Records
---
Amino acid sequence: MGLTMTSDSGLSHHLHGVLSELNRRPYPHVPNPSSCKKRASVALIIRVRPTYDHWPSSTHTYDTSQSAREQLDGFFSQPWVQHGEPEILFIKRASRVGDRWTGHVALPGGKRDPEDADDKAAAIRETSEEIGLDLTTEDCISVGNLPERVVTTSWGSEPLMVLCPFVFLTTRSDSPTLRLQPTEVASTHWIPLRALLSPSQRTVEYVDMSQRFARQGGFLARLAIRSLMGWMQFSAVRLLPSETQQCTTTPGFLPDDDKPKRSVVQRFKEWCLSNQAESSDTTRPLLLWGLTLGILADFLDMLPPHSAVQMWKYPTFTVPDLRLIVSVVTYHLRKRNARNVKPGARPSDTASDGETAALSVTKMKCDDHDHNEVGIGGLGVGRYYGASDQATDGTSYAVGIMLRGYYDRLKMAIWVFLAWRVAIGSVAGISAWRLLRRLR
C-alpha cells in the first residue's frame, strides 16, 4: 500500500498515540554480556514543524510538574500540532580514521562514560556535545525508549557494546539552534516522518566486502574479489531533508588547495575500491541503512501504513549469477519463514552493515545461555544473547523470523557460486586449450 498521507491527514494523531504507548510501556533494560562492558546511547529527537495554514498564534506553556503523558496530551491538543509535519533529526558523521561508522547517517549519541548516571544520561550528554542541543529543558519531553541491542562484530559472536535508543520530543514551534562539533558531525538533517514512511524512498546501499575478505591481500586481491562477487546490497531509505545544517569547519568541507595531487594509480585504486563517499561530499544522496535503520524499524512500523515488513528486502549481491544462486538456494527457506510471520507482527530491528550486526534483546539469560545465531553484517555471523524475536507482549519480530537460517544459506550459496565459477573456468580453459591444439 502506498503512502498517500498528507500533513493534515492525521500523522500527528498517530504519532501522539505511539509516543504515549512508548511512555506507558518502556522496553526492558538489557545488561551487558559477560565479555563486554561497553554501552552506548543514541537520541531519537522528534519535532513538529508548523504548516503555513496552521501557524501557532501563541506560545504554549507546560507545567513541568505534570507527567510526560500529560505533557504529551497538552502538546498534541494544539491545532498547529495536529496539522503539523512531524520530523526526526539525523546527523551525518564526520570522516574519522578507524571509525566503523565514518560518514554514516546516524542519530546523535555515543559511548557511555563512567560519570553518566545511566544510559539516558549518556544520550543527553552526547547530544549536547555533538550538536549543542539540550534535552533537559522545559520544552523537551523525555518520552521513553526503544529496544536495546547487543551490537556484535559482523564476523562472529564478539559483542562490541549494548546500544540504547531513547526518544525525545521538542515542543518548540521554531527550529532549535544547533552547534555542531566539527570532529564528530559533518551535518544535521531534519527528515519528515512522511518521507521515512514513503515506499517511493526505499532504495538499497551497496557495500564493498572485498576489504573484509582480503585484509592482508593488498589492492590486487581486493580487486579480484570485487570483480568476482561485486557489491553486497542492503535495504536503505533515501532521506529528503526539510532542513539541513552543514558544519563548514569540518575538514574537507571546502577543497584543500594545498592537498598534494593524487597519482593516476592512486585515483584508479580509489575508483576501483571505494563505494563510500567521504562525509564532506554533499552531493551524495543521504541514505539511512544499517544500524540506524534498524533502530528506526520498530518506531516506523508503529505508524501508518504499517508496511515495514512488505518493504523490507533480503540482503544479496549484485553479480547476476551469484544473485541467482542466492535466490535459488534460499527460496524454500524464505517461503517457509514468510508463512511463519503472523499477521500484525512487529518488524525486527535487525540491523547490519559491512562491519557490525545488532538485534534487540527483550529477555536476558544468565551467563550459561546459548549463543544463538542470527543475522550478519556483510558475511560474518552476528549473535545475540537471549530471545530476540519475541516482544514483551508476546508478538514476534517479523523480519527476525524471516531471517532465520538465511545467512547460513547465504554462505552455502557463496560456496556453490565459487564452485560454479571454478567449473566454468575449467571448462573455458579446456575448450581454449583444445581450440589452440586444433589451430596448430
---
Amino acid sequence: MFRLLSMALVLGLSMPVAAVAQSLQNILQTHQEEVLKPGRRTVGVVVDDLVASGLPQALPFLEAWRDREIVQRDTDGLFFRVIEDGDILILNDLDTGEARGAADKVSLTASRPNGGVRRAIGDALVQFQLSDPDITKRQAAVEAIERSMDATQLGPLAASVEGEPDPALKEIKTRLAGMLGALFADKQEARLAAIAALSGDLSVDVRAVLNTILASAPAVAPTVPDDVNIAQLLIVGTDISATEAYARLVSADLAPALITKPEIREALVANIVDGTVGEVALATLNTDATRALAYDMLSANGLVPPRVDATAQAEAIAAHSFLLQYAEPDTAITDAARSALTEIETSVAFNQSIDLGLDALSLASIYFLAAIGLAITFGVMGVINMAHGEFIMMGAYTGFVVQQFVPDYTLSIIIALPLAFAVTFGAGVLMERTVIRHLYHRPLETLLATFGISIALQQLAKNIFGTQARPLTSPDWLGGALVFNDVVAISYIRVAIFVLALMFLGLILFVLKRTRLGLEVRAVTQNPGMAASMGINPDRINMLTFGLGSGIAGIAGVAIGLYAKVTSEMGADYIVQSFMTVVVGGVGNVWGTLAGASLIGFLQKGIEWLNPSNTLAAQTYMILFIILFIQFRPKGIVALKGRAAAD
C-alpha cells in the first residue's frame, strides 16, 4: 500500500498548487494521533491526505517529521517545527515558515517516529525529490535509490526520467531505471527489454544486478523437479563430493544422520552392563572395529539408532538428484540474464586487455624516457654510467625548485623542462671532463667511479632537500583520467608522458639524422678511428654526447617526478630498468631503445597481471627472461651496424 501512496506523493506534489483554503495545519489537526504516534500502518493515511492537498509546504513538513523536529503545543494542539537555539526552543509555523515565538519542553509534546516509520517517510521523500527543482536534491535521491535498490522506487524513478533537464543526471536515471526494471518490472517483456539494454554496460553494479537475477541455492530432490528453474544439475564426484552430497540429504531430512565416533563412545559408555557392552567385553573395546561391533549389537536390540554404512550412503545418494536452483522462477529471465552477463564478461575481458596494454604502453614510455639518454652515452662512448639515475633525480629536483618560485604549475613545468636539461647537461659535461675522459676503455674503473658519484649525488640531495619526499605538482589540466568506459581508463599524467616520449623520439631522430652533430655522433659510433681521420674530434663529440644524454635524463626526471614522488633515491628505481632497456633493445640505437622499453614495459605488466600480489616476483621473472633473451640475441633487438657492432 505504501508503494501506491509514495507514487501518489510524487504525482500529487509535482502538480501546480491550486488555490485552496485548506492549510497544512488543518490537515494535521485531523490526524493528531497519527502524527504524534505514527506507525507503519497509519503513516500512509497522513501522506495520502498531504498528497491530496497539493500543498507545497508538505515536503518540508515530511522532512521535519522524518528528522523528529515536529512538536505539538499542549495549550492549543497546534503543530510546529521546532528549532533549538541553546536552551530555547523556537517554534516555526508549518504553513508560512515564520517563527511563532519560543516555548519550553514542558509545554510541548514531541512526535517520535520509530526507525521503520522514518524509513517509510524517507522513501517517499526520495521518490518525490527525483523531480525537485534543486539538482543537488535530485542527485541525492538518485544516490539513495542506488544504495537501496528497492522495487517501490522503480515507478517514480521511471516517471522522472522524461522531465529530467540535466543530461548527465538523465543518463544516470535511465541506467538506474533499467537496473531496477531488470529486477522488479511487473511484466516479463519489460524485464527482458531491461536486461537486453544492460548487456552493453560494463559497470560493476550492472554485473551485480545480473548476478542477483542469477542467484542460485543448492537443492536436493528424489527426482529432477519440473516446476523449478534449474541452474545446474550437480554430478556427485565431479561437481560435489559424496560427503557433501550426503550432508545435504541429512539437512533436508531425506537421510538419517551419520553416527560419529564420539557419539558411538557415548552410547557405549551409557550401555555398560556387568563389564560388557552389547555382549562385548570392555577389555576388547580398544579398536574402532570392536567399538563399531558393540554399537551394532546395541542397535540390533533397539537401544541406539542404527549406523549408516557406506553402502547405505551410496544408495541414498544414488536415489536423489542434486542441483542448483535459481531464486528467479522465470527461465526466460534467467536465460536472458545469463546471456547478457556472458556478453558483458567477454567485453570486460577484452577491455581489461586494452587497459593492461595502455598501462604497459605508459610504463614503456617512462622506461624509454629514462633510458634514451643512457642509450646515447653507452652506445657512443661505451661508458657504464651508474650515476645516470641521479641525473634523473637532479631533473626532478630542478622541477621542484622551479615550482617554489613559480606558483603557476603550467608555467613552472614549461620553465622546468629546458632548465632541467641545462642543469643536467652542465653536470654531465662536468662529470665527463673531470672523471669519465680519464677512464675511457677502462670499463671496471668507470663503473666504480660513476657508482661512487651516484652515492655522492644522493647524499648531496639529502643534505639539500632532506629525506622527505617532495611533490612535483602537475597542472590542473593534467589531473584526473581519460575514461573510455568502466574498465579502460588512463591518467592524463601518463598520457602526457607518452606524448613527451613521442616528442623526444622525433627530436632525437631529427638530431641524429638531420644535423651535423648527429652525423658526427653516428660517425664516431660506427668507426671512431675513421671519423677522427676525417677531421671529427672524438673527444669533443664524447663530451657533447655525454652532456646530451645527461640533459635528456634531466627532462625525463621532470616527467617522472610528475608521476612519482621526488626523493634522493628515485634514480635508483630506474637505473636497472634503463640498463636492461638499452641492452635488450640494442646498444646505441634509438629504435632499439624504443623496442627494449616496449618489451620490458609489456613484459613487466604482463607478469604483474599474472601474479598481482607479488611485485618482487614479477621483477625477478622479468630479469630471468631478459637473461635468457640475451643468451639467444646478445646484440639486442636492433643491433648496431658497422665496425662498432663487432666491438
